[in-house]
């Protein structure tokens, strides 16, 4: 069961960047919950986060697998990433873009973490059954 931090807890982010790659080839189920936890922000700033994929951990796809729209406030933001039809992907990483505007310093400052957790098959099976039943 994959449960890893792409960005460790209480990380202070002040510029655009990328996380270290996390290998997901051992995952039994290739559906993941990415949770972005923003614990501290200053006013008039934004954070946008994307998840990128790689087959070898070196060459990354140009298009992200998933994008979390811009966030401006502290909170927890979930993002579901389904790789069940992408067996070629062995690594994922997070990329973030930050911005700041207004008066004062132009350097953004976010305290945040990004956690990647494999969704258990049993949970997905229940959800799929509910969707089928609703149709």
Characteristic terms for this protein:
single chain, mainly beta, 50% strand
What layout of secondary structure does this protein have?
Layout: E1 3-13, E2 17-18, E3 22-23, E4 31-40, E5 45-54, E6 66-71, E7 75-82, E8 91-100, E9 110-118, H1 121-134
Antiparallel strand pairs: 1-9, 2-8, 3-8, 4-7, 4-9, 5-6, 5-8
Would you give an account of this structure?
- The two termini are 31 Å apart.
- The protein has one helix at residues 121-134, and strands spanning 3-13, 17-18, 22-23, 31-40, 45-54, 66-71, 75-82, 91-100, 110-118.
- Strands 2, 3, 5, 6 and 8 form a 5-stranded antiparallel sheet that branches.
- The mean pLDDT is 93.
- It has one domain (3-134): Sandwich (Jelly Rolls), CATH 2.60.120.
- The longest helix has 14 residues, at 121-134.
- It contains 1 helix and 9 strands.
């Amino acid at each position: 069961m994959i449960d890893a931090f792409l960005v460790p807890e209480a990380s202070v982010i002040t510029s655009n960047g990328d996380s270290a790659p996390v290998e997901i080839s051992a995952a039994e189920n290739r559906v993941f919950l990415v949770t972005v936890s923003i614990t501290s922000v200053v006013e008039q700033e934004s954070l946008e986060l994307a998840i990128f994929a790689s087959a070898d951990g070196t060459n990354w796809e140009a298009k992200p697998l998933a994008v979390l729209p811009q966030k401006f406030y502290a909170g927890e933001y979930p993002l579901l990433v389904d790789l069940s039809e992408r067996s070629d992907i062995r690594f994922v990483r997070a990329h973030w873009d930050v911005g700041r505007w207004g008066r004062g310093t132009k350097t953004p400052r976010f305290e945040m973490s990004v956690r990647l957790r494999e969704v258990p098959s049993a949970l997905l099976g229940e959800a799929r059954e509910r969707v089928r039943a609703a149709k």
